[in-house]
Amino acid sequence: MTTLIKNGTVVTATEKMHADVLIDGEKVVGVAAPGAHGWVADSEIDAAGKYVLPGGVDVHTHFQLPFGGTYVSDDFESGTRAAAFGGTTTVVDFAVQVKGQTVREGYDAWMALADGNCAIDYGFHMIVGDINDSSLKEMEAIVDDGVTSFKLFMAYPGVLYSDDGEIFRAMQQAAQDGTTIMMHAENGIAIDVLREQAVSRGETDPRYHTITRPPTTESEAVHRSIVLAELAGCPLYVVHMSAKEAVAELTVARDRGLPVYGETCPHYLHLSLEDHVAAPGFEGAKYVCSTPIREKDNQEYLWNALARGDLQVVSTDHACFFFDDDEDTPDRDLPGPVMGRQKRLGEGDFTFIPNGLPGVEERFNVMYQSGVVEGRFSINRFVELVATNPAKMFGMYPQKGTIAIGSDADIVIYDPGTSFVYSTDTIHGNIDYTAYEGMTIEATIDKVLSRGKVIVDAGTYVGSKTHGRYLKRGLSEMPV
Amino acid sequence: MTTLIKNGTVVTATEKMHADVLIDGEKVVGVAAPGAHGWVADSEIDAAGKYVLPGGVDVHTHFQLPFGGTYVSDDFESGTRAAAFGGTTTVVDFAVQVKGQTVREGYDAWMALADGNCAIDYGFHMIVGDINDSSLKEMEAIVDDGVTSFKLFMAYPGVLYSDDGEIFRAMQQAAQDGTTIMMHAENGIAIDVLREQAVSRGETDPRYHTITRPPTTESEAVHRSIVLAELAGCPLYVVHMSAKEAVAELTVARDRGLPVYGETCPHYLHLSLEDHVAAPGFEGAKYVCSTPIREKDNQEYLWNALARGDLQVVSTDHACFFFDDDEDTPDRDLPGPVMGRQKRLGEGDFTFIPNGLPGVEERFNVMYQSGVVEGRFSINRFVELVATNPAKMFGMYPQKGTIAIGSDADIVIYDPGTSFVYSTDTIHGNIDYTAYEGMTIEATIDKVLSRGKVIVDAGTYVGSKTHGRYLKRGLSEMPV
Amino acid sequence: MTTLIKNGTVVTATEKMHADVLIDGEKVVGVAAPGAHGWVADSEIDAAGKYVLPGGVDVHTHFQLPFGGTYVSDDFESGTRAAAFGGTTTVVDFAVQVKGQTVREGYDAWMALADGNCAIDYGFHMIVGDINDSSLKEMEAIVDDGVTSFKLFMAYPGVLYSDDGEIFRAMQQAAQDGTTIMMHAENGIAIDVLREQAVSRGETDPRYHTITRPPTTESEAVHRSIVLAELAGCPLYVVHMSAKEAVAELTVARDRGLPVYGETCPHYLHLSLEDHVAAPGFEGAKYVCSTPIREKDNQEYLWNALARGDLQVVSTDHACFFFDDDEDTPDRDLPGPVMGRQKRLGEGDFTFIPNGLPGVEERFNVMYQSGVVEGRFSINRFVELVATNPAKMFGMYPQKGTIAIGSDADIVIYDPGTSFVYSTDTIHGNIDYTAYEGMTIEATIDKVLSRGKVIVDAGTYVGSKTHGRYLKRGLSEMPV
Amino acid sequence: MTTLIKNGTVVTATEKMHADVLIDGEKVVGVAAPGAHGWVADSEIDAAGKYVLPGGVDVHTHFQLPFGGTYVSDDFESGTRAAAFGGTTTVVDFAVQVKGQTVREGYDAWMALADGNCAIDYGFHMIVGDINDSSLKEMEAIVDDGVTSFKLFMAYPGVLYSDDGEIFRAMQQAAQDGTTIMMHAENGIAIDVLREQAVSRGETDPRYHTITRPPTTESEAVHRSIVLAELAGCPLYVVHMSAKEAVAELTVARDRGLPVYGETCPHYLHLSLEDHVAAPGFEGAKYVCSTPIREKDNQEYLWNALARGDLQVVSTDHACFFFDDDEDTPDRDLPGPVMGRQKRLGEGDFTFIPNGLPGVEERFNVMYQSGVVEGRFSINRFVELVATNPAKMFGMYPQKGTIAIGSDADIVIYDPGTSFVYSTDTIHGNIDYTAYEGMTIEATIDKVLSRGKVIVDAGTYVGSKTHGRYLKRGLSEMPV
């Protein structure tokens, strides 16, 4: 079965070329000037006037994750379908080892949840929540299963938190194995003091979530994790960076040539404490996540860091919870593992608001709009940030993240001649709000191909939950 | 006329793929998996086991340039042929406006020198040596002729030197036109004091050339030119950077998001004051250039800056002068404009040594060897540094600098299964030494194609001095 | 003749002690606890409830200086008397060597102007406006006359400007002699381009004086002068710093242990572009000086630099010109060398406004009020900034700048129990405005002693213009 | 009872003056020019040709402290007597609250140990080893007892270690009370991993003590404690700094105007890993302390930081343990609490070497020699570092730390016309080695006065263990 995508503008991290793309089965096998190649295919897609882009790679999602007494509302089925609608053809989610479990047990449990339920290809990072001699050995062993990145938490004491010694030992293990440490970098110990004090003063509104996580609690943790990673000799990838002070720490370390990397997320680039988290009433709960949404002046700094390369990846940290539910809400007619109250758990005390936002569906579009259309960077850099770099960073390149001979035919046909407006009514995830309500995107996704198969066509999902395949990832091939 | 390059490993700044490349006339028209495309071509090149690389782009050469009472020994014919031998398929040389001339006069003179004498495609930057109301207007006008970058000198008072006011006005002009200012950044005024004092103390050996140009005379000028460029609002490209302190200034400015860029040259990465410039006798004169070859510890800093992106381009500043000539040397059996003494002019007084080194032939190979083979960066980054970035920086992309649909078929077939050793006996330029004498390169250039035509084949030049075409360059498309 | 100052609070850079001070002739000879010493003196001053402070040392004044077609309106007589009224007992003015003159001629001319006309002791820095082999030798010779600091200009091309080579040679001379280079650090060459362009666009109001001297024209020059001073090996003292970016350059250099120092002036700490220079009409001309008064947010940065030690001295750069004069103004009943129009010369074109402000009378009081009363630093630091450091910096310590055994009895009896308001009506210099109009000072100067002699008493001048003596200054004893 | 110190050179942090000093009882009551004062005293001290200096203030000593299964060998009697021999007239030791104790219990215990046993005046900082709601309240209450500084540990997990939350809460308490937090800044958690791993690899020699505490484990902790202190709003004083990277963190914070301070100790300025800790055999154990003695190149950085003000205090962290003891050593004829093995506890495993060095006797002399005689800073800066700043920093000024009217007559008569050599045979503490063995000091202590009483005279101790008095300290008066 061959497919020919004709007459489009093919864009990669480096190129922008008028060319036809030939797909054979699951792979891209040819790129050629229209009229020069003589190819006849089983099917043809007309991409005239459209971009032919690599499918998005979102390396930070959370589906079915238990958090704060509830679960994120998207399961692998609803979540990966929403991703597909949004032009993302690969996700890397997080398998979780909790205290008392083996790493393998965590991995197996999450593999089982995803298996047979994914619209698109997926991989797993491993959250190592219990670092000890035995789990360190498992970190090495699980590389053979395609897990080459391990996430640790400097926040959430008593839950997923690791102390500096545990972190350091895991980093030494990663250094030995060539794997990558991912870090949730916030000084959770100091933050917990601030949270307790705020609540005891009656400061319980959602905005105190941000106020009790001041920027230096993030930059301090970034600094510390860089020091530990340098001592251990491993690459470090800091997740969901939001404070300019924190990115500045990364910049200084990268200037010294250290293999340290950072991602930010669309919500840090578009939302602010002033306009969103501190909105009247409980509205701000929608935007409660950690690291927190910060003051507006951080946004331009983050955009600049993306443009100049000090941040390398845009992911979503997708972790959604229903906002407008309460105990009296009747059963909702929605798929997914939701039960009872979600964001509303934190009414009256922000510390009970589940942390997280939806984003897996919106990332590709909002980054194109604010990045490319608004002139912050080129369409090549856009592709690099949402597809190529994430794939290189986490050992999926060149299978994923680009349009090249031999790569998986994960492709978005993107039409810059049309536009649409984000609204809760038209999103596809198992969630009742979007953070980009009312935002106009000056392009639409015409088609999404995953391994050569069209899975979204003109706004309709034509895929299947058994299509997505587990990705055994290799070691990172990210240059400094 | 079509050509098929078969079974090679095609490398671009982003990709590395096993693919065949189809050329139609002067252009690349297809890239496809061997066996998947069904293409039949007029001629075939077997690239099995070899790299298929974009031809090198050297954006800093000097052919036929008068300097210090003599001329560089390579003219456009000998120089571009040497470039071709070394895998470089595009050069950008410098047309010179001297005091009292119009910009146009300088441009016309250099166009005439090059016309009909080049083995490969060529463009011109413009050295503006006389900045005034009229030459500023000419800077704008000459963009239509494909000159979009203008070089100024903070060194060489009384010759090409411009003062800060002249520089600032030229930068304002560039900001208005979208063109780029290239800067020779050395505080020539302070350096001249040091040179005079050294000579008056009898410090006349070649090594005093380096000693009288201390690192901060470079970093100061870089800092100053960044300040002026930021005030004026224009992009700045600092040529031939050699001091780590100077690169550090660039790094700090780039961290702030300023569009400032830097190149270094292979000689700064491989040669040192200790081992080369301070060699016994007059030997060091071979390595006299400005900015100077510095102490060894700068090298690793420069390599690191290339790897991490704070320097974006490797060029040569090719400007060669015969070393082993003297007044008694009989006529040499060599092409080119050489006359009389060259490096030997400075015996007894280093200030009379003509500044410059050969390099246009060696750049591609030595950067591959020291960069890729020795593990300092990937082959993708190599391609980016010697081809893609120079092309993007100076408005030649995507015509030059990559292998993509629609690009010029400037291609190097590179064989990593063989090796050779650099030696004066085997180089091809009009010069009697190489700075890389004895260096082993673990690859050889099998073939060089310029616009689809093979011009070097298995070590033999099969091109023509009428093949090379003038390149009208566009504005820079370099991202920060 | 002995004097006993009784019961006051004696303050030095280090101490604050309840003590009596015994003066014998011109010197302080004893400090002791009241009641413990048994001293009987020829005269007694009751300082109960008052501070006993070292007299102020203002190391940057300009009296009788020709500038822009006029002269500063204070001559040595009116200027030093105003200083005395304001608690300043030592000034260091500038002798000027202009092009074509010897250093000695400049020195002699200024010595003659001051001789017999000063209310207080005075010294001279030397402005070297014509650097050549011969004037460099004179820099060494004049140390014997007590001139140990030499001021150069990176601004005012064509007038006092020196190029980097001249500066560098003067710095080498200073390094050899142990003397200090003072720098007016502004990139005057770039500024002149901006000024010309502004005027040609019709931007002629006073505020364009500031706008055409952007902060980086100051910080660039500071950076460059530090680089040159480090190369030459001499101490550097940057005068009248106003931009936070410029002070930041100093900070970085001092962090590396370089002997570089900076002064600021009260007007940079109290006035702003927004409120003063950009005032409606021609009012802003009062505040035109170079470096310029800048945007308000620089003030807190400068205060912080004074508090933490990155700026070491507060001087005045006193250089006053009448504001409200015009060609029709009849002869004024004022002493001093004023003639014709002064600030009004620049009506219609800010480039003709003479640069400078009065301040020698106000410095001591406004620094006490804004520094000490408003809590920005201790009274010890106040004494250090206005007296001790200037004296140490310029080789006058311990004769001047402190109250210690053997020091000159230059003392201010300062009464924090009273207050007054600055107003044009009550100032004493030969000038028709004060920059601090309406500012309340919560202390008054009760008495000023110069070498043991009361010269100001309860607001009345009781000194004499023949009292002041020339100070042969030694080399700087300023620690880093 | 009055005393007159005649004809000496009186030195303070600011002044250097030829003067007589009059003491009445315990206080300095007069300073006057010889011949000018007419004073007759009960006793006279001839200081002609000698310096009259403030007695040293050592704000970091440990007497009688239990550590690692033994005690430091100096008790308050032997320790304060050794201090007096070395020109130090004030010590501030550490009272310790251990887990389970109240702050008050710790304070009372240490007050009892010192009471009646001190040759000189003494105060206490409080080590808060158990931070909780109740001990936080006690931190406020104990200010009335003259304890205004509280030491926390980021090292020694399981012993004195506090986590970031405890630290932060203590800092908030200090911010509220105006007290100062002292920090042992090392990432003890990461260090413990390195120590365990070293031992398990058989790396047990003393030098591994330094190697397992790399510089960034110090600088990281300094950075973190600065972040927490800035968030809490309290002053921070980092003890015993040894790594240049750590001081650099302090410098950056001070440049921003933060009230953060640092001390170093003579051993970090004179000893190195290369020459001392890595000495053959077990010799290195003498120099095992934490933070560790580091590589030699840190020394010049520390000296520079002292000279330029980024470190403000030189203390000793005096904590001595016998080196040449073993189980077979018969009872030694020495005072103090020594029992059994001390440094030898760590033979075969460096982790058992008690941490610490003697220094209270040597500090004053070695800092004078290496600082003043060797030209690193002035004698004024010497006085500031060893006396004035420590007194201001910890609320003892002006009672201690200077020679001023009303200050305690704590005075050292110091003779720069003589010299001596440090040797184990001639030191006076309860210890069997000095770190400065063989070092020549080009001055000798002629006399030491404590509150007007001579306690050391020509090398003989003439004091009494009941002379020393407890100092109720006030809040810090240290400027930034």
Overview of this structure, please?
The structure is a homotetramer of 480-residue chains. Chain A is an alpha/beta fold and 480 residues long. Chain A has a domain at 56-372: Metal-dependent hydrolases (TIM Barrel, Alpha-Beta Barrel), CATH 3.20.20. The first copy, chain A, has helices at residues 76-85, 103-114, 133-141, 164-177, 188-200, 207-211, 215-232, 244-255, 266-270, 273-277, 297-308, 363-373, 379-393, and strands at 2-11, 16-24, 27-32, 43-46, 51-54, 56-58, 66-67, 70-71, 88-97, 121-128, 149-153, 180-184, 236-238, 260-264, 313-314, 411-415, 420-421, 440-441, 444-450, 453-457, 460-461. In chain A, strands 1, 2, 3, 4, 5, 16, 19, 20 and 21 form a 9-stranded mixed sheet that branches. Chain A has an 8-stranded parallel sheet with strand order 6-9-10-11-12-13-14-15. A two-stranded antiparallel ribbon of chain A has the order 7-8. In chain A, helix 3 (133-141) packs parallel to helix 4 (164-177), helix 4 (164-177) packs across helix 7 (215-232) and helix 7 (215-232) packs parallel to helix 8. The radius of gyration of chain A is 21 Å and the shape is globular. Chain A starts with a strand and ends in a 19-residue tail after the last strand. Chains in contact: A-B, A-D, B-C, C-D. At the B-C interface, helix 4, helix 5 and helix 7 of B face helix 4, helix 5 and helix 7 of C. Strand 3 (27-32) of chain A pairs antiparallel with strand 3 of chain B, so a sheet runs across the interface.
User: What is the quaternary state of this protein?
Assistant: homotetramer
Mean pLDDT of chain A equals 96
* Main beta sheet of chain A: 9 strands, mixed
Number of helical elements of chain A = 13
